[in-house]
Design a protein that fits this description.
signal, Rossmann fold, ABC_Transporter_SBP, 5-stranded mixed sheet, 5-stranded parallel sheet, alpha/beta, ABC_transptr_periplasmic_BD, 13 helices, ABC transporter substrate-binding protein, 36% helix
Length: 342
């Protein structure tokens, strides 16, 4: 679960990183054909920080499942020094490739674990992973010669300065930037094309939706505190795409904490429940969430609860990930089963 929410690298790690990364003050450099190992300079901007590469990274470390699966989708498992922070089961199509990658930690990575992997590149879906009490700040890592990449979806200040882009367009930007960094531009372009087609097909659902049903996206429950999708979380865009409305679209946060009473006041037409079983904390599994909902005296009286209007999806698909677009057809199918789609 995302929370708003000092690394010192060994000599080997630092030397390896410095051979892969240079400094640049502007975007530029030529592109490379897929799998070209060198002879190029590529610069991309990631969440306000310019990253420059003379050769593609060979020892990437992913700080979360979303980043891991993007690299696997791009066929980069042999360029990975490790993965971490598994939230749900790895998608079946990635399992064989995932088994070839070292799991540095099933939980959130520490600076010591990152250092031990001797990486030349690290990436995460959220800026929250790059803090002093986790792997270190991006500034600290840059000072040690280690480039860090953050999903464009989690860069609100930069995105506001550049103009309005949908979360999906920002996600596609991630694919293209990673394609350039690793020299697999053709694979990245194909991924963008395929996901655009899926997105366009899912958007047709909106024309067949009866009214505009409201939905609560329930990500986690800690103790008796639910975390739901707010306005800036990608589920709000997912809702709009299929003709629904996020019930907490008026809260300008990603994953605000609310009360069960607040959810009951919104009286959603249906509830999407995220399953985070692999993370293993109380309240993470879909079963735990359903139990908490039904046990609450206020929630149990909701029409959506009484009529079992639930749609369950893996929690990682509520994060910006390579699997998010693929969740849209299942979301639309779930809405049809609940009677909201003609």
């Amino acid at each position: 679960m995302r929370h708003r929410h000092p690394a010192r690298f060994g000599i080997a790690a630092l030397a390896l990183a410095l051979t892969a990364v240079g400094c640049s003050s502007s975007d530029g450099g030529g592109s490379a054909s897929d799998d070209k190992a060198g002879g190029r300079e590529t610069t991309v901007t990631s969440c306000g920080r310019k990253l420059s590469f003379d050769v593609p990274p060979e020892r990437a470390v992913a700080l979360d499942q979303s980043s891991t699966e993007v690299l696997l989708e791009l066929g980069l498992q042999n360029r990975m020094a490790g993965t971490s922070n598994l939230k749900t089961k790895i998608a079946p199509e990635y399992k064989k490739a995932y088994d070839k990658v070292d799991v540095l930690s099933p939980k959130i990575l520490t600076s010591e674990q990152l250092r031990a992997a001797t990486p030349d590149f690290t990436l995460g879906g959220f800026t929250d992973y790059f803090t002093k009490d986790r792997v270190g700040t991006r500034e600290e890592l840059a000072g040690l010669g280690l480039p860090s990449f953050v999903s464009a979806v989690d860069c609100p200040k930069q995105n506001a300065a550049e103009g309005t882009k949908s979360p999906f367009e920002l996600l596609f930007q991630d694919y293209r930037d990673l394609g350039r960094i690793f020299g697999v531009e053709q694979r990245a372009a194909k991924l963008v094309k395929d996901q655009r087609a899926t997105l366009a097909e899912a958007a047709k659902t909106a024309d067949r939706v009866k009214g505009k049903p409201t939905v609560v996206w329930l990500y986690s429950v800690y103790g008796d505190t639910p975390y739901v999708a707010g306005k800036s979380a990608i589920p709000s865009e997912m809702s709009r795409t299929v003709g629904a409305k996020n019930a907490f679209d008026d809260i300008d946060e990603d994953w605000p904490t609310v009360t069960w009473e607040q959810i009951a006041e919104r009286d959603p037409d249906f509830i999407v429940i995220g399953d985070l079983s692999e993370r293993g904390k109380p309240g993470d599994s879909a079963a735990d969430k359903l139990k908490a909902i039904r046990a609450n005296p206020v929630m149990s009286k909701l029409d959506a609860v009484g009529k079992k209007r639930f749609i369950e999806i893996p929690g990682t698909e509520m994060d910006p990930s390579v699997r998010t677009v693929g969740a849209l057809p299942r979301l639309a199918a779930g809405m049809k089963d609940l009677g909201y789609v003609r």
